[in-house]
Amino acid sequence: MLGSIRCALARNSILKPQSTFGRFYVHQRCGLASLVYVETKGSGFDEGALNAISAARKLSGPVSAVVAGSEADVAAKAVSKIEGLSKVIVAKDGIYDHALPETNAGLLKALQEKENITHIFAPHSAAGKNVLPRLAALLDSQQISDIVAIESEDTFVRPVYAGNAIATVKTSDPIKVITVRTTAFPAAGSSDSAAAPTEAAPAIDAAPLSKWIKEDVVKNDRPDLSSAKRVVSGGRAVKSAEGFNAIYELADKLGAAVGASRAAVDAGYCDN
Question: What pTM does this model have?
Answer without folding.
Answer: 0.79
